[in-house]
Design goal:
274 residues, alpha/beta, Trp Operon Repressor, Chain A, five-stranded parallel β-sheet, binds S-adenosylmethionine, tRNA_m1G_MeTrfase_C_sf, Alpha/beta_knot_MTases, transferase, EC 2.1.1.228
């Protein structure tokens, strides 16, 4: 996967390129990152990338020209490597909310070009001409798209094959299919008793089935309380077991009836001797 980022602050991307799990994967060549500064595509001495908004109002707006030239340079660099034309995603509060499904589909792709806005935003004509999708990190306003782009990249890179080792596996993370799309259960580590509070007994039992059940029930509990729509989605996908439904019904105070015990078919009575 190759990520191209168009940004006025390329140095911010050292965070994913050089550090932690994503940095290790970058060093291993599992993904690559290329930053393009729109200032390098300007033609005036001040390397101007923004100007005042038409119609007045506060702040500045990023100009279309340098952004489009940076995108074209990124597309050409990708084409030179034999990659197809990449989608161009603008980070924007008005975009579609990024989620785990978005991260999965990015991880399964050849990558994309991310555009980081600054100031009041970017000239709409650039969006109309070059941008194929707009991605939001959530309902809040950041000073620039860089922090949002870092989150987009990090969430996708950790899903690439071989990036996480077994101990770090993404499989047991919240929203993952292996967890039926539910929220993760709580975690504990040493010491066994901290400030008088003990680790829950099932986790100390060494009994794998009991540990799995305990974790599953905590996941169900947390999800139904905080994100009930994820329970509905799991139900629709048919990934909740009967034991899950029983536990959910118990939590709701309306336990499901025990399954009817299967009766042995009664043996036919021997004919009476006449
Ligand atoms: C100060 S913001 C501009 C906000 C814009 N005037 C608005 O109200 O929608 C500057 C840049 O930060 C980025 N940004 C801000 N909030 C974001 C969010 N929630 N998700 C993704 N990008 C965001 C965008 O690239 C945006 O162009």
């Amino acid at each position: 996967m190759r990520i191209d980022v168009v940004t006025l602050f390329p140095e911010m991307f050292g965070v994913v390129r050089d550090l932690g799990v994503t940095g290790r994967a970058h060093a291993q060549g599992r993904w690559s990152l290329h930053a393009w500064n729109p200032r390098d595509f300007t033609h005036d001495v001040h390397r101007t990338v923004d100007d005042r908004p038409y119609g007045g109002g506060p702040g500045m707006v990023m100009m279309a020209g340098p952004l489009e030239a940076a995108v074209n340079a990124a597309q050409e660099a990708r084409a030179a490597l034999g990659l197809g034309r990449a989608p161009v995603a603008l980070l924007a509060p008005v975009g579609r909310r990024y989620d785990q499904a978005g991260a999965e589909s990015l991880a399964a792709s050849e990558g994309l070009i991310l555009i980081c806005g600054r100031y009041e935003g970017v000239d709409q004509r650039f969006i109309a001409r070059c941008v194929t999708q707009e991605i939001s990190l959530g309902d809040f306003v950041l000073s620039g798209g860089e922090i949002a782009a870092l989150a987009v990249i990090d969430a996708a890179v950790r899903l690439l094959p071989g990036v996480l080792n077994d101990g770090e596996s993404a499989l047991q993370d919240s929203f993952n299919d292996a967890l039926s799309g539910l929220l993760d259960s709580p975690h504990y580590t040493r010491p066994e008793v901290y400030e008088g509070e003990s680790v829950p007994a099932p986790l100390l039992s060494g009994h794998h089935a009991n540990i799995s059940r305990w974790r599953r029930e905590r996941s169900l509990e947390l999800t139904v309380t905080r994100r009930p729509e994820l329970i509905e989605a799991a139900r629709e996908k048919g990934v909740l077991t009967l034991a899950d439904e029983r536990y959910l019904a118990e939590l709701a105070g309306t336990p499901l009836p025990e399954p009817a015990k299967r009766r042995r078919p009664s043996r036919p009575k021997p004919p009476k001797a006449s």
